[in-house]
Amino acid sequence: CPASLAAPLAFTMLQRTRVSKGSSVFWGNASLDGQLSHLLEGLNVTQVLPLEPPDAWARRKQDVITYLLYFGQLVKFFSKERPINYTQSLCCRLGCRLFPNGTAHSFYEVTLNGTAFLSFHVPNATWERRWPGEDPVAAFAERELMKYPKTTRDLQHFLNTTCVGILRAQSAGTGKQSSRSHTLLVLGLILGTLALLGMAVGIFLCTGGSC
């Protein structure tokens, strides 16, 4: 089919967090050009594709587990301060696409309880509200996330440079070798996603109280 020639290469990560009665549950996955590369299930992170050597992967995996534990402790603390009697579900979808003409597009989208909540505008490294109406929770989360300029710049660089660079290497047929030289490939995405979720968890302080 000629249309398939225009299909972009893509690297996509989906990460979900469910918070209920002070407990957090994590799951998600990453895929490179449509092939599953990583899985996140609870505190277990699995590298499906050998994108990193065993020693580097072991360090990265431990970093992710440490952060997940820290995130869970934060949620428990927030829950004690302001109990929420219903389940909250956060979902992050991020990644990049490389088109045959050499152009690229990066994205980062956050939904809360199935509704578009925030998105990251990559060209100028800013967070934007997507929640319908003038919701104080979305405004609070947007304001809090913009307090961390280094994080937003790092995320911009990762999506525009690292992520796209991996796809360019994949397109040139040298994806595996190049992937090994970018030790922050998928786990950088995971840590970046969860770090931002850690800041966005302020919505749990805002929900059910005054922002």
Helix and strand arrangement:
Elements: E1 9-20, E2 23-32, E3 35-41, E4 44-47, H1 54-81, E5 88-98, E6 104-112, E7 115-121, E8 126-129, H2 136-145, H3 149-171, H4 175-181, H5 185-200, H6 202-206
Antiparallel strand pairs: 1-2, 1-5, 2-3, 3-4, 5-6, 6-7, 7-8
Helix pairs in contact: 1-5, 3-4, 3-5
Brief characterization of the structure:
It contains 6 helices and 8 strands; from the N terminus they run E-E-E-E-H-E-E-E-E-H-H-H-H-H.
Number of helices: 6
Sequence stretches where pLDDT stays below 50 over 5 or more residues: 1-5, 175-185
CATH class value = Alpha Beta
- Order of the strands making up the biggest sheet: 4-3-2-1-5-6-7-8
Calculate Rg over CA atoms: 18 Å
Q: Shape, please? A: globular
Approximate helicity band: 40-55%
The CA-CA distance between the termini, in Å, is 53 Å
Number of strands: 8
**Reported CATH architecture:** 2-Layer Sandwich
| SSE sequence, one letter per element | EEEEHEEEEHHHHH
Structural class: alpha+beta
- Determine the CATH topology: Murine Class I Major Histocompatibility Complex, H2-DB, Chain A, domain 1
Relevant CATH superfamily: MHC class I-like antigen recognition-like
Largest sheet: 8 strands, antiparallel
* Mean pLDDT value: 75
Number of individual domains:
1
Query: DSSP strand (E) fraction?
Result: 25-35%
Protein name: EPCR protein
GO molecular function: signaling receptor activity
Keywords: Glycoprotein, Membrane, Transmembrane, Transmembrane helix
Organism: Fregetta grallaria
